[in-house]
Amino acid sequence: MTADAPGLAFAYDLRPVRVVFGHGALAQLPAELDALERGRVLLIATPGRSETLAQLRAALGARVAGVFDRAAEHVPAVVVESVLAEVKRASPDVCVSVGGGSAIGLGKAIARETGLMLAAVPTTYAGSEMTSIWGITGESGKKTGRDARVAPRLVLYDPELTLSLPAAVSAASGMNAMAHAAEALYAANADPGTLALAEEAARRLAASLPRVVAAPGDRAARAEALAGAHLAGRALDLAAMGLHHRICHVLGGTFGLPHARTHAIVLPHVVAFNASAAPEAMRRLARALGADEAAAGLARLNRALGLSATLGDLGLGPADIPRAAAEVVAAGYANPRPVTAEAVQAILEAALRGGTSSRA
Ligand code: NAD
């Protein structure tokens, strides 16, 4: 059954998670941790985030037991090893990951290994904070899975912390969130609530991202974009992702392409491919984008956000395509339209050179 089919069938679990959202919400972090009876904090971040870390340190004071600022994209196994040594040394009661999916992903890896509670203070639009999806990348590529133990117990969104996210990073990250919403709309297991979340996520992202890119200091636009990302993260958690996420997983995990920009480039092509198999999802997505047609609306939004790169620009070569396509197909992901290696190759070729979407 797909979300477009006449019958309805769904099942889902809701986890306990406290979500706090608002300008200046960072000030509430100590009280929120108190409510969870968590004292000592290990802060997790990506390199270069010293200003944000200083804000967290100022808010948390003496309860900071350690700081690990070497989180990296796709959660390399060697980084997990290093952070586990720091967990042992600092002996925290909770990890607080501040940053994007990389910092939050490392916090999830710690939770998975040790059972330590995770709190997240997201500063990009990746949405990982709302999911139980973990990932780790070793020599044999990237492994992912779902495990309720890794999901943050507290998520604190303060749009003020996103003001420093550069326009180009904001644009790509926002399209990563858009991809969660788009694929939730045609997920076979999407419940009616998730469809509503996904459509509203897409609507808020489409409305706010061009404003964020035009004026990264626009606080109202930042709050809208972060709210859209929150909803997209919830949809990602509740719905099975399809071909688009599978392609990006392989391009990131096996070929080392950057996560968010890859999502932005690939999304219009996969949506065009799936259009004929998911008309209701396309209608909803187009409506959210204010477009006549979903794939064209996504391509137009990418252009408006200055996201003009191709997979070739990110380092994928034509010779990589058959291997990438074979790896995508081997996993047998759920998708509204049956997937063949030839179809994936056509999508990747279109995304490699840019230009029009693949419908083949
Ligand atoms: P990221 O976390 O790597 O952040 C991108 C860059 O932006 C980094 O250099 C970071 O230091 C910087 N940055 C973050 N916040 C900033 C701010 N406020 N100001 C200035 N710079 C800032 O990138 P991402 O796109 O957020 O996350 C990508 C990772 O997350 C990938 O590994 C992806 O697989 C994972 N992910 C996981 C899930 C999930 O549910 N498990 C969902 C989405 C993404």
Fold topology:
Elements: E1 18-21, H1 29-35, E2 41-44, H2 50-60, E3 64-68, H3 77-90, E4 94-99, H4 101-114, E5 117-122, E6 133-138, E7 141-146, E8 154-157, H5 167-185, H6 192-214, H7 219-238, H8 243-253, H9 259-274, H10 279-289, H11 294-304, H12 321-330, H13 341-353
Parallel strand pairs: 1-8, 2-3, 2-4, 4-5, 5-8
Antiparallel strand pairs: 6-7
Helix pairs in contact: 3-4, 5-6, 5-7, 5-9, 6-7, 6-10, 8-9, 8-12, 9-11, 9-13, 10-11, 12-13
The chain binds nicotinamide-adenine-dinucleotide.
Residues 46, 48-49, 73-74, 99-103, 105, 123-124, 126-128, 131, 133, 135, 161-162, 164-165, 169, 173, 176, 236, 259-260 line the site of nicotinamide-adenine-dinucleotide.
Describe this structure in words.
- This protein is of the alpha/beta class.
- The protein folds into two domains: 25-157, Rossmann fold, CATH 3.40.50; 167-353, Dehydroquinate synthase-like, alpha domain.
- Helices cover 50% and strands 11% of the residues.
- The chain has 13 helices and eight strands.
- It has helices at residues 29-35, 50-60, 77-90, 101-114, 167-185, 192-214, 219-238, 243-253, 259-274, 279-289, 294-304, 321-330, 341-353, and strands at residues 18-21, 41-44, 64-68, 94-99, 117-122, 133-138, 141-146, 154-157.
- Strand 4, helix 4 (101-114) and strand 5 form a beta-alpha-beta unit.
- Helix 5 packs parallel to helix 7 (219-238) and helix 6 (192-214) runs parallel beside helix 10 (279-289).
- The radius of gyration is 19 Å and the shape is globular.
- The mean pLDDT is 95.
- The protein binds nicotinamide-adenine-dinucleotide.
- Nicotinamide-adenine-dinucleotide is lined by residues 46, 48-49, 73-74, 99-103, 105, 123-124, 126-128, 131, 133, 135, 161-162, 164-165, 169, 173, 176, 236, 259-260.
